[in-house]
Design a protein that fits this description.
It is built from ten helices and nine strands. It is α/β, with parallel strands linked by helices. A hairpin with a 2-residue loop joins strand 2 and strand 3. Helix 1 crosses helix 3, helix 5 crosses helix 6 and helix 9 packs antiparallel against helix 10.
């Protein structure tokens, strides 16, 4: 990895998103702290491009936001009649036929889907507000480390909408149906202590220690052999959709692949 005083040139830096790569570690940073890293379709396209731009050497991706907030949700211009210049307004989206509206939302979701691909482990470093789309972006990652001032909230329902940026599946998986429904339907804040005890966050630390805690976690993940981590992640990701016996079989198959690989024996 680069030395502390060695500048890392961004692979991508556009529309409020910066991607840097340091050997096996990539960092995606939301870079509009003046607007609390509010999200827009342009930012979503940049996030999707960041995912496509990852070199094959990357094993761990850290997602962070500059400033006091991780991401305070959608850019408020999206709710105005004029919308964001160059982007469809909500009214224009609503007037599309089913296929057109579905395609637009699917394109937006691409910013949130690549974080859990099998060959990387992603970590969201979350401080301050993570509201709506910001909450869903944090949920898109495999792991979450939060500052003690974190405030998660799913505010879509209060706006007459639903969470549609891939956040519902991981939220239910992490906290269960009943708590997920209560969090979404009320739009209330979830703070650091509850985030950890409910399973939303892996660890909570003082804000000044957030970057160091994430670096330590990334280093621990990178210390394990890559193929073993990839196989283990696949096993765990698929466990919820398998029966106990199916999971036993999946474990045997995965272990057989690892043993053969370590021994240099072909299938």
């Amino acid at each position: 990895m680069a030395s502390p005083d060695q500048e890392i040139v961004p692979v991508l830096d556009k529309d409020g998103v910066r991607l840097t790569v340091d050997d096996a570690l990539a960092t995606v940073t939301l870079t509009n702290p003046a607007k609390r890293n509010a999200q827009s379709p342009a930012l979503w396209r940049a996030l999707a491009e960041a995912g496509r731009s990852l070199p094959g050497s990357v094993r761990v991706v850290v997602l962070r936001g500059e400033g006091q907030s991780f991401s305070a949700g959608l850019d408020r211009q999206m709710f105005s009649p004029e919308g964001i210049p160059g982007e469809p307004t909500f009214i224009e989206l609503a007037r599309r036929d089913d296929a057109g509206l579905d395609a637009a939302i699917a394109e937006y979701q691409e910013a949130f889907t690549w974080w859990r691909q099998s060959d990387i482990v992603s970590i969201a470093a979350v401080q301050g507000h993570a509201i709506g789309a910001g909450f869903q972006l944090a949920l898109a990652c495999d792991l979450r480390v939060v500052a003690d001032d974190v405030q998660f909230a799913m505010r879509e329902t209060s706006l007459g909408l639903v969470p549609d940026l891939t956040g519902t599946h991981p939220l239910v998986s992490l906290v269960g149906y009943a708590r997920a429904l209560e969090i979404c339907a009320t739009g209330r804040f979830v703070h650091a202590d509850e985030a950890v005890t409910s399973g939303l966050a892996n660890l909570a630390v003082p804000g000044a220690e957030l970057d160091a805690a994430v670096r330590d976690l990334a280093a621990a993940l990178l210390a394990a052999p890559r193929d073993a981590v990839v196989e283990t992640k696949a096993l765990l990701r698929g466990a919820g959709g398998r029966t106990y016996e199916e999971q036993r079989a999946a474990e045997r198959q995965a272990q057989a692949r690892r043993l053969r690989d370590l021994a240099g024996v072909g299938e």
